[in-house]
Amino acid sequence: MPDSTKRLVIASVWAVVLLGLPLWWKTTAVYRAQLPFSQIDSWAERKACQLSFPSTFVIHLASIADGEPQAHNRPLDFAVIQETITSHVNNRLASTNARECVEFPLHVNIQNWPITSDMKNLLHHIEPSNSKQVIAIADIEEVSSAVITAILKGERERVRSLACDSELTERSNLDGARTMKFSPTYQMTFSLMNGNPDSLQVDWDIEAAVNTYLKPFISEVSLVSNFTVDSQIQHYADLAVTPQFMERQKLPSYYYLTPQTLPHFINSAEWNLASAISSYPTINFILYIPAADKTPLRIHDDKGQPLRSNAFLIPRWGGIAIKNPPKAASGKLEFSKEDLKPFMEIFVAQLRGLIGIHDLKKTMSSLESSYEISLAPTPQTAVTVIEMDAVVKQRIAENVVNSIATLKSLAQLVMDIPNMVVLDHIRTEVQLSLDSLNQACQALQQEDYLKALQHSIHAIERSEKAFFDPTMVSMLYFPDEHKYAIYMPLFVPVSVPLIMAVIKQLKEYKKEKREQKVKAE
Amino acid sequence: MPWKKLPSCILLLLALAYPVQSKLSSQKDSFQEDLLISPLKDGKLLAHFQFTTLVDAGGLDEKDGRYAHYGLFPKSIGQIIDHHRVQELHLTFTQGRWQYEDWGYPVAQSAGTGVELWAWMKLDDSIESNWRSLTNTLSGLFCASLNFIDGTLTSQPELSFRPEGAKNSYNHDERMREGAEVRYGILPHENVCTENLTPWIKLLPCKSKAGIATLLNAHKLYDTNYHSMAIHIRPVCQDANCTSQSLELVQTVTSVLDPVRESGRRDWSFSSLFGREIQSACPVSDRSAVTVLLPSEQHEYQLTPSYDTIIERTAAQVERPIAVYNLSQHTEPLNLQMTWNEGEFSYPLQTSKPRVYAHKYMTGYGHERGGVTVNIFNNMNESQDISYFDSVPWFLKLYLHTLEVSVLGKDHIDQNDIVQDLYYQPAVDRSRPQVLEMKLRLPPDSVTAVSIEFDKVFLKYTEHRPDANRGFDVGPAVITTLLPAGDDNLASTVLELVTNRDTPTRQNIKVYTEILLASLPTPDFSMPYNVITLTCTVIALFFGSIFNLLIRGFSVTEDEVDEKKHENKDEISNSS
């Protein structure tokens, strides 16, 4: 056989093998939909859209007192005042951080406050003594900017730390650690825990108490999240920790729990607190009645002093209040709606903390020394408009950041595990999530917070749906090792003669070349 | 302020501040605990725990279709039945087989080995998803594999498993069925153990800390011949006209203990049976009582301490006296003790058989086809109507034409005289089982045999269990019949008697047959890899030799050529 035929045979077999290999690779590969990695990356680097949280303040100036249009020294130039206040506030709140990833545009809008008869009372309330007081422009500017600064300061810091800082610093932030992770719905469970029903039986009118003290608050915050409310009574609720005994001379002795033991207060093995029907996060509120041999039970603070409220909050879990039954009580202890009021107040306050509402009164109290500021009293909803506003901003920032983080880890996971099946609907969810992010960001720029909140909720829901999709953790994936193991009995014996033939041919070819050279010489 | 669309909170407040009547959560609930102890004829001892929680169904917060505030009724159960729109629910975990011939009928009706779940659910578009979700939720709650009750195991009985609730209602059956459907599923292979009992105990108001439930000691409870644990939820009427209904949760534990095994004597006490004593009644219970069904001959035994009340020879045909201990009146721990005036217990040679019972067994041989036969015994002197239910998995393909109902020894009785009604649902492969239901009229003093043949399906490679060669468990056949009170269903009437409930003159009785083990043809599970390896080797060998042939040069050595040249010139081969 001539060498050329032989070489042709070898070359053609090799050609089939080389053409076949990619075909084999392709037919045994898993399906992976292409995810928009670059878009996710640009979001992760905060380049896709500039997050901005604009706020508008409307200041109503009662400039014209009855019949005295020229009470002020000079006519009010609203535009100038607006500018001055804006720059004052911006200066005071200027971030020390060089790299700013969120914008906080501020608009101040001053409006004339025409005095009508029904406002007389209010004015009278503000200035009971003398209604003809002249206020200097500088004072208006100073007071307004101080108030606005106080309102915005905490809010901005929180939004900024949520949006810009890495997760690590967020965790160290006490505030963020207390607030529940965002969910469109929370289940709220009130539990009446009775330490020992042998000596004392308990009952409560929780339904009426919830309707009266809690429903207004819930309907107000339902803009952000919905709540379902249920309650239960548990008997023989043993403590998981043993309280310490404090013996006092003259004064009655008592049992107490130290702050160190409080994290172990919940006996989750025996108290039926889990819900079986939904996966929404549960916020638990427990009214604990200690057993007679552990009464009275108090909680000590860090300094060893008993707390007045006798209640504490477990971050991201719920709140607990301890009620010591009166000494004389035996038989039955029933809590009427009125009896429950102090506890519901505690629970509402704890709930505010758990869903991320920050007390405006506290921030304003620092100002009260220099100015006389009276805040409009909180309606029974237990949350003011400004506080609600701050919560909405925080939740938007949190949702946007969390959905970006979820998408980013999804992208990383898909890139790290090359054998993972990625189906088309995952890509759709990711795309929808990115779209919602975009819309949320645009709504933010247009100062439409409600819309932004809705879109941010969609974004986080979709990104989590994609991340936790059951097909992403499929058991039936084909690792490469598996592939090699199965095809090894074919590939090894086939490749040996192929390779040997090539080597032999190469040797012969070289030999020929050498011979030709010798001949030529 | 950016907050423009705020609702006026004040108005909302006024709307919500309507006067609310004071309603305490647990006022409308009631809780009763009972323990029934009855010596059985073969020396064993039946201990039946029953915990009943009643909650006013009308008084619950049904504003948005959900109950919200729970007192004694467990919240987890309430939420589950509420969320899945369940009207009645019966869940039983059983281990061991109830010996109908020795023990009579059980107090708790459900006695099929394994885990049995049946529920009447509101009929709407989501009933299938509700059922699936219900099995999954209960599976999580009781740490059992209930989630394996999927479409292939779920059936819809037409004649058996009628609703048990709202009994006093004059047309309760129609009312319950209106807009409701039943779903039934059983896992015969499921093991029952402590991990199922612990969540079950947590549903009790006093858990196992006080009351009768303190006796529920898992170490002793599972060291028995038979044990069964159940929850039954059903609506019941509060009055005769059924104008208002309550939701009733009955939790039962039935255990058949064997005192003879250890000492040879029938003597027992709480501490020997359960290793514990009853310290006190559960403080939130309305009734807390231990009931002992005594033997008819008084001189045979001693019972200490003495009972509080005794009920003797009552109207409900109970021929044995009943001793009742009211726990709320006992200040000291109760350690009930019964001593028999006899030496070694001698097993009775003959036991009185119950009126209706059944046995089920496989017929045929081999892996290809087989059959199943159920023998139904009627020991009464009159004919008896029963409903027969059997759900057979799809992998045993029944042939309806092979169905044969005959009376053993009485060949002259025509099949059509026995079978009053027949309902058959054919299987769909991998999605639903066969259901065979019949209304039978059993002739007096007879053994009726129901037999049917089937083919065994060759399952797919992945459809086998990890222990493939063990075979597949097939659930029991269930026979439902109405029987008047008698000696064999004594125990179940006693509880109704002592709780002062209306004792029905006739009682619905369910008889469960044995579960079966069907061995299906099992493939060689390493075969795919063997095939791959073998094929690859053959191909490689073939390729190697062909390739070698293709590239090898064949040449004839010179001296051979010289010799052969003369013989045949054509045979000079050079290459191929």
Automatic annotation (TrEMBL), chain A:
InterPro entries, A to Z: PtdIno-glycan_biosynth_class_S
Keywords assigned: Endoplasmic reticulum, Glycoprotein, GPI-anchor biosynthesis, Membrane, Transmembrane, Transmembrane helix
Highest taxon of source: Eukaryota
Protein's cellular compartments: Endoplasmic reticulum membrane
Membrane topology type: Multi-pass membrane protein
Gene Ontology BP term (one): GPI anchor biosynthetic process
GO CC entries: GPI-anchor transamidase complex
Family affiliation: Belongs to the PIGS family.
Protein's name according to its UniProt entry: GPI transamidase component PIG-S
Species whose genome carries this gene: Umbelopsis ramanniana AG
TrEMBL record, chain B:
Signal peptide annotation: 1-22
A GO BP entry: attachment of GPI anchor to protein
Matches recorded under InterPro entries: PIG-T
TM spans (from-to): 529-551
Keywords of this entry: Membrane, Signal, Transmembrane, Transmembrane helix
Keyword Endoplasmic reticulum: no
One of the record's GO cellular component terms: GPI-anchor transamidase complex
Protein's UniProt name: GPI transamidase component PIG-T
Species this protein is from: Umbelopsis ramanniana AG
